[in-house]
Amino acid sequence: MNKIYWILVCLALTAGAAAAIGKKDVRAIIEEAYPGAKITEIEKEKYQGKKIYEVDFNHDGKKLEAIISLEGEIIKVGIDD
User: Could you say which architecture CATH assigns to the domain 20-79?
Assistant: First the structure.
């Protein structure tokens, strides 16, 4: 019984860690990493074969674009053409 309990606990923890974030979470991630950022667009896209969020925003007078994984990791930030 004890072994089954720990297997269930581990499954519950890994299932929660794999949960995808939403646009509200994406906003919070950008605002934390770039205080004062003005987000202009958030879209779900594909990057290197994986689903991601693409975020266009302005910060310190620059137009930037961020790629954020569905797990909440900032993958890449660059100048938006």
Answer: Roll (3.10)
